[in-house]
Design brief:
single chain; TIM Barrel; two-stranded antiparallel ribbon; 287 residues; globular
């Protein structure tokens, strides 16, 4: 793996996702956000007002770039043209962290799907993801954080559970983890398992960033399914899971994601302040 070029560590504070409706407020005056995260694919154009605005804000706020289109789980390998565009963006912005999802979104015919699809936790899939993460880290010149997905079904075949799969991925590639505790909760509720259990087996030393978000509940005749839609305030059980996570990891950068039904900026900043309260508690416990 190429030596990491991430600028520095993000502060162990709460950040928010920078979304277009809030951009005028950020450009007009400083906002009480400790750091910002953007979706990488929204800024791949080499010029234009959107990129110019982010470059201006980059001087005032630490930055994390979160990719959604690399398709790390693709058996056909990664799109090298996309890697090159990401490398150009990251060299331009020099974000503190870069991340991608443990998922696939590229069909064999080269068509990209508008979703993050799960992969089976089997040896063949691990070999493909390891090769893709190695290539990504080499091509990007940076350590990559890999995010645990939200899941809604289980494959019949499995050589590992999710915690075991991620542990092997970290061991073989040296990648870091972006631990999404909302995804942990959503997956556990959908599968009828304990959301705390993975914390005893995940490689928490590799966690460099944590996400929290809202989710939706969809009722069916046979039960209920939780959907990771990032469209509401963080639910109380997810806050409790964040507290349990920070008790094990110590203070880490925590991002509040809100990508649909985007609220007014003060509402989002209020969620970040609540996350900061959990971080202050983690700091007191660690001190």
């Amino acid at each position: 793996m190429t030596e990491a070029r991430n600028r520095a560590a993000l502060p162990a504070r709460a950040g928010i996702g920078l979304r277009h409706p809030h951009l005028p407020e950020f450009l007009a005056a400083p906002q009480p956000a400790a750091w910002l995260e953007v979706h990488s694919e929204n800024y791949l154009a080499p010029s234009g007002p959107r990129v110019a605005a982010l470059e201006r804000l980059r001087g005032d706020y630490p930055l994390s770039c979160h990719g959604v289109g690399l398709s790390l789980g693709s058996a056909e390998g990664l799109d090298r043209a996309h890697l090159a565009r990401l490398r150009a963006l990251y060299d331009r912005l020099e974000p503190e962290l870069v991340s991608e999802h443990l998922a696939w979104s590229k069909a064999p015919d080269g068509v990209f799907l508008a979703d993050l699809l799960p992969l089976p936790y089997i040896r063949e899939a691990l070999c493909a993801v390891v090769a893709n993460v190695d290539l990504a880290q080499e091509s990007l010149g940076r350590r990559l954080l890999v995010e645990n997905p939200s899941t809604y079904l289980r494959f019949r075949e499995a050589d590992w559970d999710e915690a075991g799969f991620l542990t092997e991925l970290v061991r073989r590639t040296g990648c870091g983890l972006l631990l999404d505790v909302n995804n942990l909760y959503v997956s556990a509720m959908n599968h009828g398992t304990d959301p705390l259990a993975p914390l005893d087996r995940l490689p928490l030393a590799a966690v460099e960033e944590i996400h929290v978000a809202g989710h939706a509940r969809v009722a069916f005749s046979t039960g209920e399914l939780l959907i990771d839609d990032h469209g509401s305030a963080v639910a109380d059980p997810v806050w409790a899971l964040l507290a349990a996570t920070l008790a094990r990891t110590g203070p880490k950068p925590v991002l509040v994601e809100w990508d649909t039904n985007i609220p007014a900026l003060p509402v989002l900043l209020g969620e970040a302040e609540r996350a900061d309260a959990y971080l202050r508690e983690a700091n007191r416990a660690a001190g």
